[in-house]
Amino acid sequence: MTVRVGDLLRAGGSPPARVTWSAAEVGAHLVSLPSRYRRMFDAPRPFPASVAEENQRAIEAIGERDPAALADLLAGEIAGFLDDCGPDGDRAVYYFTVRHTAAGIAGILLAELLMHGSDLAHDRNWPISRDQAVAALDGALPATVLSVDAAAARRATGTYHLAFRGDGDWTYRVRDGAVTVQRGRPDRADVHISADPVVFLRNAYGRLGATRASLTGGIVAWGRRPWLARQFGKVFVRV
């Protein structure tokens, strides 16, 4: 994946899809992430009030805008990140204030590479495999508790069963404006959401609309309170 993104950066080209950054700024953003994540491994860090502002500061701190240099920097940063993760994917680390695993943080970084690679490629010839989507979601889902819109969550009280086809189950519980998430199927759910992992990943990161995901069968909901599925996406603030 690092090689694929690096090739896109070296190619330069027109501004990426869906983001206001230039291609070089997307590259600088990706270069900034591995060291940011590594600094949190052993100690919690408050989630920023504005992720957008933190991202912009990190892009400006990188400074480099040459496409080939950014591709080389990205390869080096990813290599250093993987070295710090070590061989134990279950090693306990932090992602901001969330207790996570080294493999989980690697999944979050993979999600960034997948989504911004798609932006740089303008969605052309940018396949995402099921295994890649599953690894990205395994990292991203536990971290969603950091980006909850409390007002929206109060309108979405319930137990959600999220089932990824061919992978497994997750349980989201929304109560009193707060959210908990854990792997596994709940004993009882208000709504069941069956999703193709690739479709869900692209929808969760704003690269595929909910209507298209539903009409193509990529995401299907049913249960005692199926209307809650529409509220589910609104609970989380995209950053």
Query: How many angstroms does the end-to-end distance come to?
Result: 22 Å
By DSSP (H or I, 4+ residues per run), the number of helices equals: 10
Total DSSP E strands = 7
Instruction: List the strand order in the largest sheet.
Output: 5-4-3-6-7
Helix content: 40-55%
Number of domains: 2
Structural class label:
alpha+beta
* Biggest sheet layout: 5 strands, mixed
Strand % is 15-25%
Query: If you compute it from the alpha carbons, what radius of gyration comes out, rounded to the nearest whole angstrom?
Result: 18 Å
Name given to the CATH architecture of the largest domain: Up-down Bundle
Mean pLDDT: 93
Uncertain regions spanning at least 5 consecutive residues: none
The name CATH uses for the topology of the largest domain is Four Helix Bundle (Hemerythrin (Met), subunit A)
CATH superfamily of the largest domain: dinb family like domain
